[in-house]
Q: What sequence folds into this?
């Protein structure tokens, strides 16, 4: 009997836990609010913390390196020490590792917010919501992101930028909601060079691409190392994305529901590039994949039968 | 990659301070992440006066994080991304607090600073350590967990004959595929080991793909299989800690562990060896 009660108790906990994820998050917010304030509410404390993050220091040295007056340093550092953010050994203060990790999280979040505010005109006219893509909760530290906008001098700027990146050396990944205007050229280039290309498209498009690959198969010119055609996971946001080892180009869908073909975000930085590879990985469905080998062996099979 | 905190320090942290220092702002952002809501919906979760809630909503609207249509409040695109990233940071906060010992005792000197955003992956893991009576406990468990894998992704910072034999065993028995990220000194140790002929052969067959950094930069032993995952760290004195965090089959952070592995592969200082 006790066992049954225990089982029911466990079950009720699980159910409550599932429904109340808002409550769980509210608990986190309430639990850590004071501690977070301790980190963010004082520029002086932030400066002391980033300084100690770099190297342990004495009060005197901190005073010298930051220029903050002595009494202010000692009162703030006492506060940091009593809250387990720094520890004192002999005369030196050390940043505790767990506090350092929390601090870095806050600094990176500030950069994320600055990025969002910088691009709010573009982002808020486009769709980004997708709860199934986890990497959206882990935006990278982004600097040097550009918004390329086609204009009457160069109406194809965005499309050209996408295409140029598709022809990059090394591993290239693309999410293609539609065919490139120069699709035939791009395909021929990929097949006749030592390319490593993966593309995610809708089902009807992937069938078309596969049929065009078949038509272009020619043993003499086939140098492609890897060509994979994947289908998207169910219900993805509509983006166009091309990522190569040193560049990421991303276009979004307008709020009205059509892809914006004249505007793309571009970055050459390492972290946005790595982020984009991960975005691609989460977006594609690895079970629905057609490789170049699949296409070759299928068309070999057909010609054998003739 | 962020090497030094000075690269990411700013003169002001006004945006973080503004959003994170108010319980009400955070709660409203969290609620709207769940769904669009009217004032009445919000009041079901937050017992504050209407004027307080409305003022906070107005503040968030002024920041273009929230918009309103027919008395329904919803997140804008920037509001959505801001809220999700804030919740990620709060989750990290919780996990770093929960596992503070792990973070204080291990060395993260060679970690890129931005990996701090991945702290939350330790959630849902179980830490297994060797005991005096059972010195081989973690290694035995490691071998057990990777035994049935057909896909392995490993960041390897140590060359241990025992661990490496487990990996080779899986590759041979299951015809498994391995993506291996390691450093030059470990790669050299593999070359000089008795496993080298098998390793070479498997690499030729396409079962092994290899990424190598010239410097000894990996301070994490990360293993991902089709189902299970494992992580171990180094102590502050840079010796390897055998204690291992294991994850069971289904867990929330699985995708993120994959991403962590990918970020190792895509680091600029790491080259694929073909």
A:
């Amino acid at each position: 009997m006790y066992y049954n009660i225990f089982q029911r108790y466990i079950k009720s906990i699980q159910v409550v836990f599932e429904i109340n994820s808002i409550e769980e998050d509210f608990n986190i917010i309430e639990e850590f609010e004071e501690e977070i304030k301790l980190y963010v509410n004082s520029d002086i404390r932030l400066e002391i913390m980033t300084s100690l993050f770099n190297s342990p220091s004495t009060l005197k040295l901190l005073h010298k390196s930051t220029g903050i007056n002595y009494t202010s340093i000692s009162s703030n550092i006492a506060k940091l020490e009593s809250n387990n953010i720094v520890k004192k050994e002999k005369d030196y203060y050390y940043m505790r590792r767990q506090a350092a990790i929390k601090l870095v999280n806050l600094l990176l979040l500030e950069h994320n917010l600055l990025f969002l505010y910088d691009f709010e005109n573009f982002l808020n006219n486009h769709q980004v919501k997708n709860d199934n893509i986890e990497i959206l909760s882990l935006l990278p530290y982004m600097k040097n992101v550009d918004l390329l906008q086609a204009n009457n001098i160069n109406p194809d700027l965005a499309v050209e930028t996408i295409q140029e990146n598709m022809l990059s050396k090394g591993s290239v990944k693309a999410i293609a909601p539609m065919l490139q205007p120069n699709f035939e050229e791009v395909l021929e280039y990929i097949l006749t060079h030592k390319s490593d290309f993966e593309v995610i498209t809708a089902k009807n498009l992937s069938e078309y691409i596969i049929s065009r690959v078949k038509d272009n198969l020619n043993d003499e010119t086939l140098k492609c190392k890897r060509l994979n055609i994947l289908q998207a996971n169910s219900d993805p946001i509509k983006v166009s994305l091309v990522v190569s080892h040193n560049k990421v180009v991303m276009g979004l869908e307008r709020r009205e529901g059509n892809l914006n073909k004249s505007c793309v975000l571009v970055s050459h930085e390492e972290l946005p590039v790595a982020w984009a590879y991960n975005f691609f990985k989460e977006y594609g469905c690895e079970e629905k994949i057609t490789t170049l080998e699949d296409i070759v062996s299928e068309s070999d099979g057909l010609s054998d039968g003739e | 990659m962020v090497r030094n905190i000075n690269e990411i320090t700013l003169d002001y942290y006004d945006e973080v301070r503004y959003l994170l220092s108010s319980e009400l702002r955070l709660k409203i952002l969290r609620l709207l992440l769940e769904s669009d809501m009217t004032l009445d919906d919000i009041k079901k979760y937050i017992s504050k006066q209407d004027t307080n809630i409305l003022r906070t909503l107005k503040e968030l609207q002024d920041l273009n994080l929230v918009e309103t249509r027919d008395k329904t409040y919803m997140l804008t695109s920037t509001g959505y991304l801001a809220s999700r990233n804030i919740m990620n940071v709060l989750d990290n906060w919780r996990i770093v607090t929960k596992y503070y010992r792990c973070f204080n005792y291990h060395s993260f000197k060679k970690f890129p600073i931005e990996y701090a955003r991945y702290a939350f992956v330790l959630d849902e893991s179980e830490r297994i350590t060797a005991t005096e009576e059972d010195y081989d406990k973690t290694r035995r468990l490691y071998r057990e967990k990777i035994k049935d894998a057909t896909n392995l992704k490993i960041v390897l910072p140590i060359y241990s004959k025992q661990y490496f034999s487990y990996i080779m065993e899986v590759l041979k028995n299951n015809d498994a595929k391995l993506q291996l990220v390691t450093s030059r000194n470990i790669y050299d140790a593999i070359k000089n080991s008795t496993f080298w002929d098998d390793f070479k052969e498997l690499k030729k067959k396409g079962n092994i793909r290899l990424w190598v950094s010239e410097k000894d930069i990996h301070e994490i032993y990360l293993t991902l299989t089709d189902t299970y995952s494992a992580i171990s760290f180094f102590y502050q004195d840079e010796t390897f800690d055998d204690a291992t965090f294991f994850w069971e089959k289904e867990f929330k952070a699985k995708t993120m562990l994959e991403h962590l592995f990918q970020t190792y592969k895509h680091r600029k200082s790491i080259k694929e060896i073909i």
Observations:
- The radius of gyration of chain B is 23 Å.
